[in-house]
Amino acid sequence: MKVLGFYKSKKYLQRVLISIMLSMFLVLLSLSIANTYILERSVKNNQQESNLKVLSQIQYNLSYMNEIITHLSNFVYKDNILIPMMFDARLPKMDLIRGYQRLNSILESSSFLHSMVVYNSASKEIYGTTTPFLLDDGVTKSAIKRWLLNPPSPHPTSKLIPTSLEKKNGMIDTFAFIVTTYLKPFNPNESAIILYVKSDWVFESLQKMNVSNDREQGELYIADQDGRLYASNHYDSFANEPDQQSIKQLLSGDKKMKNRQSGNVIGEISGKKNMITYMDDGIRNWTILYIQPYDKLMEEVRMGLK
Predict the structure, then answer these.
(1) How much is the pTM?
(2) Which domain holds residue 280?
(3) How confident is the model at residue 98 (pLDDT cuts 50, 70, 90)?
(4) Residue 214: left (phi > 0), alpha (psi -120 to 50), or beta?
(5) Vertex 280: Cα angle to 182 and 48 (nearest 5)
(6) What tens digit of pLDDT does each residue of 32-70 get?
(7) CA distances (Å), 79 to each of 33, 82, 177, in order?
(8) Are residues 91 and 190 both part of a single domain?
(9) Contacts of 243 (CB under 8 A, 6+ apart)
């Protein structure tokens, strides 16, 4: 009987010990999960705050760029030598020569300009400054004319418009800035000057901010009102339509739900979790984005818990 009692007592102690160990395991697991959640939330909040500060600076830089281009465009549009190119139905040869000389002079003095185009609504003629425009048998001229006069929807004026003069496959090399008498969508019955701004000049600000803040974990982008992404690397990371639509839906959903123009959203893109910090530009209907792979962002947190 003593042996039986000892056996039962030992079995009971084993159960108690197992219960204690299981309880300790559950407590440690709960603490670990809670600690991971707290750390991840802290990292996300700190990262979002840091990202928004950078996006605010980029927003300011883009506004400053817009101001520079606006001042230049006003000066160019009122230039007496260029006025005949814009409005004369029959342009004398000497006025044409003087006009080209003035366009080249402006280009040489503005390092951020890729090229310039003058559209004369009276003659429906376009005058351009680039070598391809002058020497490729009208290919570049026809492309610009189609873009300007037959767009899917009227182009806005006095705003940077992503476009391409030389690259293909959706890549951009310039931002067009259309200048007319009125600040309204471009009408083919109005004469205009189009300043083509180098895309690298616009994106240089983004890249410098990315490098200076040691942000190797993600990429900075500009999204237009249709959700299309642009970057200095020509948005290689999210080039396909489904990815861009996913990003657009994530942003629009967050903006509507929280009624804000800047913030942070986490969601899946191409089956991978990403953190997107965004801020509306406020001038051009653009949104500035910083997209980071979530696993990369939390790598240090998870390594620290191992």
Answers:
(1) 0.76
(2) 37-63+216-305
(3) very high
(4) left
(5) 165
(6) 666 666 667 777 778 888 888 888 888 888 888 888 899
(7) 68, 5, 17
(8) yes
(9) 269, 270
